[in-house]
Amino acid sequence: MNLIYIHGLDSDANSTKGMLLEKYCQQHHPDITVLRPDLNQSPEHVFKHLVSLIENANNDETKNTKAAQSHTSNTVLVGSSLGGYFSTLISNHTGCAALLLNPSTQPHITLQRFADESVSTDNAKEALLEDYVLHSTAGGWNITNTDLQWFADHPLSVVNHPDKVAVLIKEGDELLDPELAKTFYQEQGATVTVQAGGDHRFSDFGEQLPMVLKLIQQLV
Predict the structure, then answer these.
(1) Whole-structure pTM over 0.85, yes or no?
(2) Would the CA dihedral through 145, 148, 152, 153 be positive or negative?
(3) Candidates 3.40.50.720, 3.40.47.40, 3.40.50.1820, 3.40.190.150; correct CATH number of 2-106+156-219?
(4) Sequence spans of domains, the chain
(5) Is the Cβ–Cβ distance between 46 and 111 less than 8 Å?
(6) What does the alpha-carbon distance between residue 113 and residue 82 come to, in Å, rounded to a whole number?
(7) What percent of the chain stands above pLDDT 70?
(8) What is the DSSP string of 72-123?
(9) How far does CA 61 lie from the centroid of its chain?
(10) Per-residue model confidence as pLDDT tens digits over 104-156
């Protein structure tokens, strides 16, 4: 099995949760390979890169098998925050299973704050240009108006494979409204688990890894 960890907005390939997941699998599930791509680039490139990763991973896994029967069965996406948004899009597109952690469901709205902040400065005219850098993330992604438009053009409106999607949500998420994600994924028929307290970063992720792996195995 392959797990692709998809990090959030201000993170990178060396995110804490991604590294914890990889270390846990190395120790307890050596048959599972964890991929931790750095996705600090435009959303269009992120989407294409993830689809390519899945295709390559499945090609390795399905040698000498019937691809039509096992095209996506050996790859699971694990997405945190904005990574949860991308995981849902990619799952819809490929049929891959996905485990989401405090997923973002409306990045075209939540990330609009960067444009609003830029327009309110002395660079108001420049801030309206498509390639103007509205915000630079900790990982080095320079967010532009073109990126925000991409999110607006690719809203989450449906979950195509709800039986393959599980969601873990912390009620104490201080950055995203947990009710939005809870309502959306429940209405779509995905498995949703809401945990009391906690935070957006899912700080107790390491302690939950045994449960997380069981949940992942149930999705494939």
Answers:
(1) yes
(2) positive
(3) 3.40.50.1820
(4) 2-106+156-219, 107-154
(5) no
(6) 15
(7) 89
(8) STTEEEEEETHHHHHHHHHHHHH--EEEEES--S-HHHHTHHHHHHHHTSTT
(9) 22
(10) 999 999 999 888 877 666 566 666 677 888 899 999 999 999 999 999 999 99
